[in-house]
């Protein structure tokens, strides 16, 4: 069956806003008001389709979409080897499901979120590109420059590599942009498998089934059927100023020259209501979409060096990006230190990690702090790394270099009873 936003909305609580919201700050205000509470649907000024936000603003909604109650199953799916397109998809005819429409970049749900943002942005754009039989899907913010052009923020990862090769040859890079995709399509596109693996090949693991897909009409890129809007475009040889823009940590990213994307065709799904998707920068959905695949990477890495990883949490106050708590079952003293090193390897942007025993809930920062207060000694449990590569999102880093700190707040194996937290039967 097609993978549609309508199907997802049928499973969650939805707040439908009656009034048409303005794209200058008003829409952002409503998204923030309802995040963590309800998925919100609203009409946006000058946009022909309804806009949805806060689809994955809570972890339970991710589990609901995957039809599982286990975060571990989601982690395993996100760290699996993506299936190639011939195994991941059931192929359909694109034009049976889509019709071509005349729409400008400013009609695709572009919103200005914060006061110092450079302009109106698309924040859930999935860019699908190819080089021969190598496909890539990744999520990129796009600043609307005019009716046909957008500046695309592209960091030095896989799409950057494909674009650099195209530009080296003096040619534009054909791309297909997916807008209003099911949130699991966005989550899969946020994962980081090795170059040459197609991120959308993770969808069968997340869904437990193959996905209906079609080749886009101009460039032949795979498109999951049910994606609301499909844009055929080119990333040109031109650059334009992009930014400032509010990023994951709710700080303003710098303005810098970024590649210009030019729209060629816009196609709209005809079998159901097409929705556009707005992600509030620095909001809960932004944190889960970016952070959950990185939690999966930490879980996978730490699982190789300790008997069992109970829970991994990238903390909300760090943008679900820079700080983590990892709960483990120890078999030996020293497992805590090994877990620290493995966590940094599993998510290189990580700046601070606290490792705790399995009796500490990694979601309870009061218990995490209690573990640090009672089970941690700086001269024995502190790991400090200097001059390491960190996150470009961290404004305190210099030229991408940072220091990293690990805290082993686990109790010694032979004295665990001395560190037991008192409980009231029936209450704790």
From TrEMBL:
According to the entry, what is the taxonomic lineage of the organism?
Archaea, Thermoproteota, Thermoprotei, Fervidicoccales, Fervidicoccaceae
Protein's pathway: Isoprenoid biosynthesis; isopentenyl diphosphate biosynthesis via mevalonate pathway
- Domain 3-octaprenyl-4-hydroxybenzoate carboxy-lyase-like Rift-related as annotated: residue spans: 103-283
Relate the protein's function as given in its record.
Answer: Catalyzes the conversion of trans-anhydromevalonate 5-phosphate (tAHMP) into isopentenyl phosphate. Involved in the archaeal mevalonate (MVA) pathway, which provides fundamental precursors for isoprenoid biosynthesis, such as isopentenyl diphosphate (IPP) and dimethylallyl diphosphate (DMAPP).
GO molecular function terms listed in the Swiss-Prot or TrEMBL record: carboxy-lyase activity
Q: Which family is this protein grouped under?
A: Belongs to the UbiD family.
Full protein name: Anhydromevalonate phosphate decarboxylase
The protein's matches in InterPro entries, at most eight in alphabetical order, are given as: UbiD (IPR002830), UbiD-like_C (IPR049381), UbiD_Rift_dom (IPR048304)
Catalyses: (2E)-3-methyl-5-phosphooxypent-2-enoate + H(+) = isopentenyl phosphate + CO2
- Which top EC class is given? lyase
Q: Which residues form the 3-octaprenyl-4-hydroxybenzoate carboxy-lyase-like C-terminal domain?
A: 288-409
- UniProt-listed Pfam families: UbiD (PF01977), UbiD_C (PF20696)
Where does the secretion signal sit in this chain? none
Q: What is its EC number?
A: 4.1.1.126
Q: Which GO terms describe its cellular component?
A: cytoplasm
Cofactors demanded by this protein: prenylated FMN; Mn(2+)
